Amino acid sequence: MFTSLRPHRHDVLIAVIGLAGGLALWGAGLHTQGGRAFGAHWVALVPLAVTAGLELLRRNRPQTAVAVGTLMLVADQFTTGSLATVLMYTDLMYAAVVYGTPAAARRIPVSTFLVTVAATLGALAWFRGPEALLFGVVTGLVSFVPALTGVSVRNHREAADAARLRADQTALLAEMDRVQAVTAERSRMARELHDMVANHLSAIAIHSTAALSIDDPGTSRDALGVIRQNSVDGLAEMRRLIGLLRESGAAEPPSAAPTLASLDALVGQAGANSASSGLTVTLQDSREESGPLPAPVELAAYRIVQEALTNALKHAAPGPVTVRLGRSAKVLTVEVSSAFGDRPGPRAPGSGAGLVGMRERVALLGGSIEAGPEPRGDGTKIWLVRAELPVEERTWRT
Length: 398
Description:
Elements: H1 9-27, H2 45-54, H3 62-76, H4 83-99, H5 102-127, H6 131-213, H7 217-244, H8 263-274, E1 279-285, H9 295-315, E2 319-327, E3 331-339, H10 353-364, E4 368-375, E5 381-390
Parallel strand pairs: 1-2
Antiparallel strand pairs: 2-3, 3-5, 4-5
Helix pairs in contact: 1-2, 1-4, 2-3, 2-4, 3-4, 4-5, 4-6, 5-6, 6-7, 6-9, 8-9, 9-10
């Protein structure tokens, strides 16, 4: 990746301060050594100026800066020397670890440690005195200590970056969970709205069509009565749904969700709505287990029956519509059968959303559902909706 060579303003400031400090020391005649090969005082300004210029590259080209800086530090040892050159070199070593590549950040501390050890051993072999240890300490202070400091700072920065990344990922996951929860809740609300209102609207559509197409005052009066009753019931269901969406601090609590105990009323209402279409609706409850069912299972079973009765009201041929309930130790079985074939009179249009909603409810509970025509022994067919709902929570999806 291309990196701009334009120096950072902090690097420019460090370079200016280092050069100005070196010039001040040089002007005051303060040097680090004497009696060198290049004894003229002005020669010490060359490594000083080059090292100050390398400070401009400490962030953008750290490895180049420390490599050339090492040559300047060696060259400084052949002049009267400048403390500013040494200090700026330590900063270049620090920057090479902090801003360099990960490989360089691992390699430089090891290399400087080995150089420090080698310098100490070489000085011991050369001087054979305690001053050799001082030489090793100075070498470590100039090279190894800045590199070690750079490692500490770099590790701290990487840990902070990793913590920020984890925080961002956590926030992203939380947002994804929130979006999924909102989507799931909207789907649930859509199913509830469809299941609650579709039955009433289907009855209203069929009886209003009958009232408009049959020129008989008695029939129209009966149809209008059914329309009014379904309008009132549908409005009550809508109010119940709105109650479920109220905040928890609302003055009026929402009503409870429907259960299988309400099936008698549902079947009775469906029978009243479908009488004019030649349908007779009955309930057969043959459950072996009489214990309580989990609320999600009862709600799903109720809505499946409600939607199946709505579909029968829309499409079934005249004849019996039977709702059957069965239960074993682990499964609740729901069946709704109706006559299959064409029928005279008005029919309400269907969108297919009801079958989709039923399948979604069953899938959430880990059950199975089938819907389609089934042959009978007398050569006729019935439309059968059969759902099996597990009553154990470990099979449900969350």
